[in-house]
Amino acid sequence: MTIDERLDRLTERHEALTQSVELLLRESQEQTRQIIEQGRTVLEHSRQINEHSRQINEHSRQVGALRDASASLLQIAQAHENRISGLEGQQ
User: Fold this and answer.
1) 52-65 residues labelled b (16+ CB within 10 A) or e (exposed)
2) Cα of 78 vs its chain's centroid, Å
3) What is the torsional sign of CA 74, 79, 83, 89?
4) What is the pTM of this model?
5) How far apart are CA 26 and CA 5, in angstroms?
6) What is the pLDDT of residues 65-89, one digit of tens each?
């Protein structure tokens, strides 16, 4: 094998390696872009989860307030019923 043939072979190998590195670089850049996009999506979902949690807490507080108000109304209704029953019994 002559020196020229060796140089041609080395040149071909170098070009093949260069193409492989360029391909790996493009793939790496695409994966990086995808990871960044997925990170943004995760961040947005996290914000939505936090907002939903806040809304659930507020609804739970409102349900508790309604429960307490219903219990108070029940006591008032029972007191009125007892009073009416007492008045009817006196007649």
Assistant:
1) eeeeeeeeeeeeee
2) 47
3) positive
4) 0.63
5) 32
6) 999 999 999 999 999 999 998 888 8
